[in-house]
Design the sequence.
């Protein structure tokens, strides 16, 4: 079993990501590395392990929850502002009509 330096592993993943049409297999062949080894390095670089959730995925989910909560609050504020705008428009029409008489 070969042991590669961390720099080589990082460069292999960067090479795969820099080639839009490349497959894991083609990059593995170019680097003379086993295809599964290459796939595992890419997963590790993404913070994933096969069959398990990582802390990165959990953090991304909590970020999504925070964004969703912020979005809901922004939508509520927009609804309030639109309601206030509509009230002011009706009041403006009412007073405009009264001054014409």
Sequence:
């Amino acid at each position: 079993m070969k042991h590669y330096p961390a720099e080589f592993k990082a460069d292999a993943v960067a090479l795969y990501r820099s080639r839009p049409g490349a497959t894991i297999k083609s990059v593995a062949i170019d680097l003379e590395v086993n295809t599964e080894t290459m796939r595992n390095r890419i997963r590790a670089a993404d913070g994933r392990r096969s069959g398990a959730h990582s802390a990165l995925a959990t953090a991304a989910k909590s970020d999504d929850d925070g964004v969703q909560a912020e979005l809901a609050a922004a939508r509520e504020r927009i609804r309030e502002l639109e309601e206030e705008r509509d009230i002011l428009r009706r009041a403006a029409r009412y007073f405009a009509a009264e001054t014409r008489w």
Notes: The chain is about 75% helix and 0% strand.
